[in-house]
């Protein structure tokens, strides 16, 4: 205040009134009058000077972008401007996400790369307009389901390269606006079974993980580029696909009803049916014929030429491999025979969605 600066934060509507280059005495009088007004006290006796309109040169534009790349510049004693649309806090050795970030309602780009973050708080779900999230080069172990739901209609780019991810939640497939997904150098052992729901995905990278196969819904995608190099894909299960024995049971009436509900796309929420039943319906898998199935199914690992789903393909290994094991699911023995009788052993040529 002694430098003629002050920030007044308005709760409703959410806005910051930033005062700078003001006369110190006038500023103190103004803040004193404001305090009395908030306390419902009489301000008639407060002496205020005549206000002169500020010129356009004196009025500072709202700050929409902030970049912090060192601990020295981190705003510990001041707040983040409410008007921010892009925030980058990188190489600051952050171990926790600053709780003040979740109040930045206008934020569309958040970059917290090259820190030491291990967890992502659920409060970040308040950033409902977020379009880009950069978290590369941290030690994040999981991506919260709450963020998948919150960003389902906004997030277009997610960079999680060089983290410690071991799995992705089923809700990850609700990020249907994703265009660019980067998961290189993690510890992913599998991809969500409904990964094909990411219908707008065009660029996908998951090199140097622990993937042994990819889900059959992967064929629903139309990618411009894909990179799956350096994964320990299990090709032996493809070679043995026809020699395995199968035990097929008849689906229960409960599962039959669930299959019909998913086929007809009947909407449901926990307010309409028990939460346990919602989880059961969410656990459905897509057969290669397009139908939904649950615990009654046939699982086989087949072979896919990755060029079928992408224009640009990085080879899978140092030998130039381009075929990847795909975990196919069949809803019935009839469906299994229909698709496998026309294929060479272990090969998958087409899906019918």
Notes on the structure:
- The protein has 353 residues and is α/β, with parallel strands linked by helices.
- Helix content is 15%, strand content 18%.
- It is built from six helices and 16 strands.
- It has helices at 24-38, 145-150, 236-239, 253-263, 275-282, 333-340; strands at 6-10, 15-19, 65-68, 86-89, 109-111, 132-134, 157-159, 180-182, 203-205, 214-215, 223-227, 285-286, 292-293, 298-305, 310-313, 323-330.
- The strands form four sheets. A nine-stranded parallel β-sheet has the order 3-4-5-6-7-8-9-11-15, with no helix packed on it.
- The longest helix has 15 residues, at 24-38.
- The radius of gyration is 27 Å and the shape is elongated.
- 26% of the residues are buried.
Summarize the structure.
With 353 residues, the protein is α/β, with parallel strands linked by helices.
Approximately what portion of the residues adopt beta-strand conformation?
15-25%
Principal-axis shape equals: elongated
Low-confidence stretches: 241-246, 342-347, 349-353
Main sheet characteristics:
9 strands, parallel
Distance between the termini: 66 Å
Strand order, biggest sheet? 3-4-5-6-7-8-9-11-15
Treating each run of at least 4 consecutive H or I residues as one helix, how many helices? 6
Q: Which radius of gyration do the C-alpha atoms yield? A: 27 Å
Q: Please give the oligomerization state of what you see.
A: single chain
Q: How many β-strand runs?
A: 16
Q: What is the H/E order?
A: EEHEEEEHEEEEEHHHEEEEEH
Q: Which structural class do the helices and strands define?
A: alpha/beta
**Approximately how much helix is present in the residues?**
10-25%
Q: Return the average pLDDT rounded to an integer.
A: 85
